[in-house]
Design a protein that fits this description.
- By secondary structure, this protein is of the alpha/beta class.
- The protein has a single domain, classed as Rossmann fold, CATH 3.40.50.
- The chain has nine helices and five strands; from the N terminus they run βαβαααβαβαααβα.
- It has a five-stranded parallel sheet with strand order 2-3-1-4-5.
- Helix 2 packs across helix 3, helix 4 runs parallel beside helix 5 and helix 6 crosses helix 7.
- The longest helix is centred in the middle third of the chain and has 18 residues.
- The protein starts with a strand and ends with a helix.
Length: 190
């Protein structure tokens, strides 16, 4: 099964993906984690990505798609992937559909975590105070949230038109959100 966890930055996608990795043995493909690893490597690509993220901009489709494509064999061996933070644009969604179709696979379910923008700002401010993670800087986060709302929200009709979109209230407790996601997944596999 291939699943997309959809929602703005700090909506809880990473938390839920990690839980699904443990409970369902799927592979998490977190573009955020992949990009942070590229930055940590100090490579030329990592330095380029670092500047883009510090400005609060989104990394190009080409870079992100290449990172994802490199990991697809691993997901197939595990029996499925959790796409976390990808796709973010219609071009990425179409590229993902093409990549998977070439491998005889598809996206089975898209779970949208519905959250409140103001609550996210409060969540990020707290997370930044604890972690100091550069991409959690509240000023950069405002730019990222604006980019999400402008570029990523338009994916909702794309996946809704394919009959793959399920919405979950992302403002509940971790366990409540987890139970709703599990229910959606069980509905697809039934």
């Amino acid at each position: 099964m291939n699943l997309i966890l959809f929602g703005p930055p700090a909506a809880g996608k990473g938390t839920q993906a990690k839980r699904l990795v443990e409970s369902r043995r799927m592979v998490q493909l977190s573009t955020g984690d992949m990009l942070r690893a590229a930055i940590a490597s100090g490579s030329e690509l990592g330095q380029k990505v670092d500047g883009i993220i510090k400005r609060g901009e989104l990394v190009s489709d080409e870079i992100v798609i290449e990172l994802i494509e490199q990991r697809l064999p691993e997901t197939e061996a595990a029996g499925g992937a959790i796409f976390d933070g990808f796709p973010r644009t219609l071009a990425q969604a179409q590229a993902l559909d093409e990549m998977l179709a070439q491998r005889g696979k598809k996206i089975d379910l898209v779970v949208r975590l519905k959250v409140d923008d103001e609550a996210l700002m409060q969540r990020i401010a707290g997370r930044f105070a604890e972690s100091g993670r550069p991409d959690d800087n509240p000023d950069s986060f405002k730019v990222r949230l604006g980019a999400y709302n402008a570029q990523t929200k338009p994916l909702l009709p794309y996946y809704e038109g394919q009959g793959k979109l399920v919405e979950v209230d992302g403002m509940g407790s971790i366990d409540t959100v987890a139970a709703a996601i599990d229910g959606a997944l069980d509905g697809v596999t039934a």
